[in-house]
Amino acid sequence: MTLNKQHITNLLGMIRSVEPDELDCDSCYEQLSELAEVELHSGRVPDTLKLVEHHLHQCPCCKDEFNALLESLNALQAENSD
């Protein structure tokens, strides 16, 4: 794969946005259900889940998993309220 100027710019932007205590995908995945519950009920993300939220902005794979989880929980919630 040949990197063009845009690819390099994107990669550098990602590097600059790395947090000192960044989560990896496994650590993020372990906390997805907790974040989903917060999103469904209060909407206010506590400081303890800020790194998870940050990781989701950086990682499309984890973001897809999170969105699928939210969809499932919303469907279950709608089903239970009928």
Kindly describe this structure.
- The protein is mostly helical and 82 residues long.
- It has one domain.
- It has 4 helices and no strands.
- It comes from Gimesia aquarii.
- This is Zinc-finger domain-containing protein.
How would you summarize what this structure contains?
This protein has 82 residues and is mostly helical.
List keywords for this structure.
Zinc-finger domain-containing protein; 73% helix; mainly alpha; elongated; 82 residues; 4 helices
List the helices and strands and how they pair.
Layout: H1 5-16, H2 25-41, H3 50-58, H4 60-81
Helix pairs in contact: 2-3, 2-4, 3-4
What is the arithmetic mean of pLDDT?
88
Q: How can the largest sheet be summarized?
A: none
Q: What oligomeric state best describes the polypeptide chains here?
A: single chain
How many strands in all? 0
Q: Can you tell me the residue ranges where pLDDT is under 50 for at least 5 consecutive residues?
A: none
Tell me the Rg in angstroms: 16 Å
Q: What string, H for helix and E for strand, traces the elements in order?
A: HHHH
General form: elongated
The N- and C-terminal alpha carbons lie at a distance of 52 Å
Organism: Gimesia aquarii
Protein name: Zinc-finger domain-containing protein
